[in-house]
Specification:
The complex is a heterodimer of chains A (199) and B (208).
Chain A: H1 8-15, H2 23-32, H3 34-51, H4 62-67, H5 76-88, H6 96-122, H7 124-154, H8 156-162, H9 166-193
Helix pairs in contact in A: 2-3, 5-9, 7-8, 7-9
Chain B: H1 11-19, H2 23-45, H3 48-63, H4 75-99, H5 110-121, H6 127-135, H7 139-145, H8 149-159, H9 165-172, H10 176-194
Helix pairs in contact in B: 1-2, 2-3, 2-4, 3-4, 4-9, 7-10, 8-10, 9-10
The chains are: A mainly alpha (199), B mainly alpha (208).
């Protein structure tokens, strides 16, 4: 038998159900020493009384009272995503066969695009020639549209000020596009945020 | 919004949904922690009405700043930390108000003034008092009430909420050794309060 009574820390270790190399001798001492066992039992009774204490409930309307004061912040990107999903969801086919058909069509399209890409890479010369052609057409188209947009929004004098410079027209029109895009994004955000649900 | 079975999601996922502004996630957080938090605060302040107000403050502080929640901290620890601070602050203010003879000069709000003059104003036990005496009237509850607030929060978190020493230390911003000491002393005081005749059965360091 260990000729030393258990220290308070050691009784705590046993109460906390600690396991390990150092605990076995403490348990052995506890089995043999009436005095330490009585002290341990007293402590255990206190711990048991504590562990049997019930969790008390607040009044039934507690949740609604808290929710009435909670400020729910919905980040704009979540609100925008919800809005877009809200638009798309009604368009998604409901029946299983239609969904399968749409899925099959999408897969076929993806396969076609892949084959076309592989073909274009295999015929790089022709691809580059056509890409150049498309680029020239696109720049001309963009400049014409941009000039039209600038003229429509800012008047003929603005177009004249740009002096028919294609790059200036494109930059000006892109800036206008960005302004319009940002305005649309803010409008979307405002629309989405107004949907925030409150309790 | 996708339909989630919120009750089966771990805390971290519920918080992530709350951070996206999902209202049901806020309700789920309250549902999970209203009882543990209210119990802790009620046992700290021992007044049902005040405990409800403080528990409400705790949730509002947490939920209105859910974007500040760091995922490396357990949600329960975060809520208990706020709840404990709210309760300790209240006890501190109440102690200041009680020391004053002329009423409650430290009371910052009307509610506090009312709280400090309540005992003087009313002697008849209300239904709420009766409920309180039934809920917190047992010997162990009274013994807990007599503990220092620091001991009280540690012992309640350890044995009512089943938190580890490490978690309590993190939650209450205390060194691990201090938490162990507080819990040991709290157990000792509770034992003395519950069985005064047996409390000093033996001196621990004596030779057999």
């Amino acid at each position: 038998m260990n000729h030393r009574h258990l220290l308070p820390d050691e009784i705590d270790q046993l109460l906390d159900g600690e396991v390990g190399f150092g605990v076995a001798p403490l348990q052995a001492h506890l089995r043999e020493c009436d005095q330490c066992r009585a002290a341990f039992e007293q402590e255990r009774e206190v711990v048991e009384a504590l562990e049997h204490l019930p969790r008390l409930a607040p009044s039934p309307d507690f949740t609604s009272r808290v929710m009435a004061q909670v400020q729910i912040y919905e980040p704009w990107h979540v609100a925008a995503r919800d809005t877009v999903v809200g638009w798309i969801r009604p368009l998604a086919p409901r029946s299983q066969p239609v969904r399968l058909a749409v899925g099959g069509a999408a897969l076929s399209l993806a396969a076609l695009v892949t084959v076309a890409t592989v073909w274009l890479v295999g015929h790089a010369d022709a691809t580059l020639f056509f890409a150049g052609l498309v680029r020239t057409t696109l720049v001309r188209g963009l400049a014409t549209t941009g000039a039209a947009v600038v003229q429509a929004l800012l008047g003929r004098s603005a177009t004249q000020a740009l002096g028919g410079n294609a790059t200036a027209v494109i930059v000006a029109s892109i800036s206008l596009y960005i302004v319009v895009f940002l305005a649309a994004a803010f409008a979307l955000r405002a629309a989405a945020v107004s949907r925030r649900r409150r309790a | 919004m996708a339909v989630f079975d919120l009750a089966n999601l771990p805390d971290a996922d519920v918080v992530a949904l709350a951070q996206q502004g999902r209202e049901p996630a806020f309700r789920e957080i309250i549902r999970r922690y209203e009882r543990p938090l209210f119990s802790l605060i009620y046992r700290m302040v021992r007044d049902r009405e005040t405990a409800e107000e403080l528990a409400q403050d705790t949730f509002l502080k947490a939920l209105n700043h859910i974007d500040r929640y760091r995922a490396d901290f357990k949600l329960s620890s975060w809520l208990f930390k706020i709840g404990n601070n709210v309760a300790i602050d209240h006890l501190r203010k109440r102690r200041l108000a009680t020391v004053s003879v002329s009423g409650a000069p430290h009371a910052a709000t009307e509610a506090e003034v009312e709280a400090t003059s309540f005992e003087i104003a009313s002697h008849a036990p209300s239904a709420l008092d009766q409920l309180e005496s039934r809920e917190l009237g047992s010997a162990i509850e009274k013994a807990i009430a007599a503990l220092r607030p620091e001991y009280r929060s540690c012992i309640l978190m350890r044995h009512v909420e089943g938190r580890s020493y490490e978690e309590i230390a993190t939650t209450l911003d205390l060194p691990l050794g201090t938490v162990k000491t507080y819990i040991h002393r709290a157990r000792l005081e509770l034992r003395r309060a519950l069985k005064p005749e047996e409390a000093d059965l033996r001196t621990p360091d004596t030779e057999p």
